[in-house]
Design a protein that fits this description.
Chain lengths: 109, 114
């Protein structure tokens, strides 16, 4: 079945630095979605990428969808303490949304 | 928009007891999902309903788990009998339509089975 792998599992970042989390699917996806879950909270939708090679930005967050529609990345610049949480990618085929294991981000002030 | 509403927020029960988790999706959403989250296994899809009909229940662990959606505004996930390994956070999520719509998650139910 469809599997979505996400790395790294943990990311410890100095405030102000950049980091990237990567997502890879074993199958071609119709779209990929990204979610953020704060500690003790629930996943909250951030963005959806549909087109091959698509790039979208939300302030300091840049999302990319690979040309083959099998991988994606999230790059955060100038990390802030508000960026703390777990970032999940979720790859979709038909109705099925398969979540990666998530990247848990902690920030050193 | 009140969002997806789940109850209870926390449930502590003894092994062997029946547990019922409840979910009210966002009005107008025709897709509903139950997910389970644990440290070991991450977010797992348990069951998916479309227009109140179960479409995919392949993620339901075993016969002890059952889910219903009697109408568009209510769903339940039942575990009978519960076991300690069922301890997890259970999320309900709804979506306007599938595919290509984001999921809106409820706050979850943290279940502890002792």
């Amino acid at each position: 079945g469809q599997q979505v792998m996400q790395i790294p599992q943990y990311q410890h970042v100095q405030e102000g630095e950049d980091f990237t989390t990567y997502c890879n699917s074993s199958t071609t996806l119709s779209n990929i979605q990204w979610y953020k879950q704060r500690p003790g909270g629930h996943p909250v939708f951030l963005i959806q990428l549909v087109k091959s090679g698509e790039v979208k930005k939300q302030k300091r967050l840049t999302f990319q969808f690979g040309e083959a529609k099998k991988n994606s990345s999230l790059h955060i610049t100038a990390t802030q303490t508000t960026d703390v949480g777990t970032y999940f990618c979720a790859g979709q085929n038909d109705y099925k949304l398969s979540f990666g294991a998530g990247t848990t981000v902690t920030v050193r002030a | 928009d009140a969002g997806v509403i789940q109850s209870p927020r926390h449930e502590v029960t003894e092994m062997g007891q029946e547990v019922t988790l409840r979910c009210k999706p966002i009005s107008g959403h025709n897709s509903l999902f139950w997910y389970r989250q644990t440290m070991m296994r991450g977010l797992e899809l348990l069951i998916y309903f479309n227009n109140n009909v179960p479409i995919d229940d392949s993620g339901m662990p075993e016969d002890r788990f059952s889910a219903k959606m009697p109408n568009a505004s209510f769903s339940t996930l039942k575990i009978q009998p519960s076991e300690p390994r069922d301890s997890a956070v259970y999320f309900c999520a709804s979506s306007l339509r599938m595919p290509n719509s984001p999921l809106h998650f409820g706050n979850g139910t943290r279940l502890t089975v002792t």
